[in-house]
Amino acid sequence: MSAPAQTTPAQTLALPIWALHSLSRLTPFVLFLAAWQGLAKSGLIDPTFLPSVSAVGHALIDLGASPSFYTDLAVTLGRSLGGLALGAAIGIPLGAGMAVSRKIDGFFGPLVKATYSLPKTALIPLLLLWLGIGSATNIVAVMFSTLLPFVVYTYHGIHGVPQLLTWSARAMGTPQRRLLWKILLPASLHAILTGLRLALGFSFVIAIAAEMIAANTGIGKLMFIYGESGAYDYMFAAVAAVVALAYVADRLTVVISNRLLRWDDVENRLG
Amino acid sequence: MSAPSSAAAIKIRVEGVAKRFDQSGQPVEALANVELAVREGEFVSIVGPSGCGKSTLLYMLGGFLAPSAGRLLVDGAPITGPGVDRGVVFQEYALFPWLTVFDNIAYGLREAGMGAREVTATAERYIALIGLSGFERRFPRELSGGMKQRVALARTFAYEPSILLLDEPFGALDAQTREIMQDELLRLWRTTGKTVLMVTHDVSEAVYLSNRVCVMSQRPGCMVEEFAIDLDHSVEREQVVLSPAYTAIRNAVWIAVRQQVVVARRGAA
After folding, report:
1. Would you state the CATH architecture of domain A58-268?
2. How far is residue A77's CA from residue B67's CA, in Å, rounded to a whole number?
3. Domain residue extents for chain A
4. B140, part of any domain
């Protein structure tokens, strides 16, 4: 583009390449926040409905100083992960069972297909009726929402295992009943972990939605209260905290998954 | 010299075996009336036009597929399923990608209930034998095709099946690696005295390695011709390959296979 420069920007700034890379990744976020701040300050929108970035920042600092905020975050995190664990504990065996047994597939297959497009939030009022206000409703709602990704990804993962792998295990003395544990599940690990990552995202969505309707604690309830009372800067701050929490949880999942999949082809790594 | 005497017991017997597949409602006849007998310690190759059903026959001997008609016997007993008496090496290696080289080779030993110390000793011995010392902790994706093939052979040899079933074992290798691996196999076979049945489309490979080469017809496949081979493998490879005996038999087998391919082409046209 331009004439060759004496020094590259990197040299001028004396920053290592990796630091420049992470900085360049932040650019879209910085631009987004700047646009938000500009819009909020422009007077085009009533600041009651769109608090400025700085106002939300102040609210976030204020929230960060209160111990009950961390309790709410922990409660929400606990409900998400608890429901996720339950979803995995039921969904992975169910998906595996459906993949290896025609009988199990014949029974649960139609159920899975029928509930596939059902918005799981529609179950929250029912669960509220049965389980009342509190963690039980939340956790069961999360469990239902994460069940399907586990079932579907485990099922397809096992169906995609090359026949030669099971044949060669059988030839080396692995009995039929141990194929699932020795071959089919490890060979489907990539698919199952992809399902886990998807389910993790769902778990936050449903935990917070359920808290808004059916809980007295948790970050979802907090958002709801701030929204009701018109403290929108605080509501936005709570949303920002959830976004950050979900992001960290997702990155952690990716890092752990890729560690578990270090034997797999690089192009199969989670991004 | 290395050929087992004709008095050796029959290890594998295939009697009137047929195999039909159902391909989207259309019955396809893969094999028809296949007859074969392999003696203990013999190295037999099956060659034939592609799609003649030779791999199907091997999979039936592995116990993965059942015949539509006829019988398959090992040591006089019908094959009812896979068994550790028959080691199978597949075309695409079929290594377990989540296991290291060491754990892949140890797999069959552990399944056989061998103690940890013995597993380590045996696996290490085979890793050294195939020249992969130092690669124990690598995963299959980090290996070249030739290395993967050596691991596949080693993991099958390690648990000592009395029969080796090889399905185009060197098909995916480059010419140089293939020759090295062939000599490796020959050495392993001669030191262990196993019964080997190999399926290949490579006539030179079949003639170089085997005591006997069986030619299969086009689909539905059956045995049409058989060649007994007695090459002196005590000399170097180049001497074997350049000998008039090798050339003569290689040409004869090549023509027999070629006839089947031509018949198949005419049938298709």
Report:
1. Orthogonal Bundle (1.10)
2. 57
3. 58-268
4. yes
Which of B17, B42, B26 has its CA nearest to residue B164? B42
Q: Find the closest chain B residue to A176 by CA distance.
A: B82
pLDDT category of residue A2 using cuts at 50, 70 and 90 = very low
Per-residue confidence at A1, pLDDT binned at 50, 70, 90?
A: very low
Complex ipTM value: 0.89
pTM equals: 0.84
Domain-embedded: residue B254: no
Q: Tell whether B231 is covered by a domain.
A: no
Residues of A in contact with B88 (CB under 8 A): 167-168, 171
Percent of chain A with pLDDT over 70: 94
| Counted domains in chain B | 1
- C-beta contacts of A78-82 below 8 A and 24+ residues apart: A78/A135, A79/A135, A79/A138, A79/A139, A79/A142, A79/A207, A79/A210, A79/A211, A79/A218, A80/A142, A80/A200, A80/A203, A80/A204, A80/A207, A81/A203, A82/A135, A82/A139, A82/A142
| 8 Å CB contact of B112 and A167 | no
How would you label B229-251 residue by residue, b for 16+ Cβ within 10 Å and e otherwise?
bebebeeeeeebeeeeebeebbe
Q: Which residue has the tokens 């071959």?
A: A183
Instruction: Print the domain residue range for B150.
Output: 92-160
Let me know if residue B96 belongs to a domain.
Answer: yes
A183 touches B: beta carbon within 8 Å: yes
Report the C-alpha gap between B260 and B254 in whole angstroms: 10
